[in-house]
Amino acid sequence: SDAAEAGAVIDYRDWQIPLGRRFRALKLWFALRCDGVEPVRTMIRDQLDWTRSIVREVEADERFEVVAPPALNLVCVALTASTTEEANSLTDALVESVNASGQAHLTRTVLDGRSALRLSIGARTTTADDVAAVWTLLSDRAHTVISTTAH
């Protein structure tokens, strides 16, 4: 911002550990050195399996659709509706509802003019139960968003 460039406010991003390539490589090196390769392999395999399970859940639920091919642990999902505008509105409301719950955090993106929620399964401490809970939350909130909008 202009205020940060002028030095009128403190820019706290300059006070943190940098997240450039070199630092990420160092974090990976420490994880491999401390834990070994096998726990990292297991974590990646589990997260890919959990991502595939979310994709199966989405594909089995007619309210949702996968709007882009899953990329590793990232799934882009949208609610379906009769028009793109309605689907965009519902999907945006779903993202806001899930984020407001404080139980999960989703990001939003636009793909070919369509709103989509981005679900990334990648935290080191994530479990299969966490992934199941996020799907339950998405499903419940989708029901609420759709029924609220329909009236």
Summarize the structure.
It is built from five helices and four strands, in the order H-H-H-E-E-H-E-E-H. The chain has helices at 2-6, 21-35, 37-60, 84-101, 128-150; strands at 64-71, 74-79, 107-111, 114-120.
Summarize the structure in words.
The protein is α+β, with helices and mostly antiparallel strands and 151 residues long. It has five helices and four strands. A four-stranded antiparallel beta sheet has the order 1-2-4-3, with helices on one face. A hairpin with a 2-residue loop joins strand 3 and strand 4. The protein is globular, with a radius of gyration of 19 Å. The N and C termini lie far apart (42 Å). The mean pLDDT is 88.
Core attributes:
4 strands; four-stranded antiparallel β-sheet; 151 residues; alpha+beta
Low-confidence parts: none
Helical proportion?
A: 55-70%
- What is the molecular shape? globular
Number of DSSP E strands: 4
Calculate the terminal CA-CA distance, rounded to whole Å: 42 Å
What would the average pLDDT be, to the nearest integer?
88
